[in-house]
Amino acid sequence: MNIKLTKDAILEALANSQGNISKVRRHLEAHGIKAEWHTVEKAIHRWKETEAKYKDEKETLLDLAEDGLLQAVINKEAWAIKYSLSTKGRARGYETIPTIKIDSTDPLNINITGDTMTAEQLEDSSMVEIPDYGEITESE
User: Fold this and answer.
1) CB 86 within 8 A of CB 95
2) Which helix or strand (DSSP H or E) is residue 100 part of?
3) How far apart are CA 68 and CA 76, in angstroms?
4) What distance in Å separates the CA atoms of residue 57 and residue 24, rounded to the nearest whole number?
5) Per-residue pLDDT, 92
6) Residue 101, beta-bridge partner list
7) What are the Cα distances from residue 31, in Å, to 13, 25, 48, 91, 137?
8) How much is the pLDDT for 1?
9) Helix, strand or coil for residue 131?
10) With pLDDT > 90 as the criterion, what percentage of the chain qualifies?
11) DSSP character at residue 70
12) Could you tell me what percent of the chain has a pLDDT over 70?
């Protein structure tokens, strides 16, 4: 017997799901509500309350991941320290990947931070697209 997906059923299933739709679907199924993954996803986004709960659950997962990362840093695990510095420590200069920043007030002012790159490396980088406007002569 299939029972209709209701807002209350979705809200209950979302609790402690960490935003995992398969987990929500399994909870619903355990309570007699059979629905395909995509049907559950559509139902989550049908109501503002369920969508907000879904977003909150996804944020909870990130909080748990950050707690784990923090504990690894406290335990002085090198991978965690390196990862933390290269992501959250970027503003302090801990960058492992060059970042290209274009000044919105002066689009010709391009700042490259991070490791030093030669002009040749910059041209070969998959992160940068340099258009070829052809050769410019002095008469132009």
Assistant:
1) yes
2) strand 99-102
3) 12
4) 11
5) 83
6) 111
7) 9, 10, 23, 48, 75
8) 47
9) coil
10) 58
11) H
12) 66
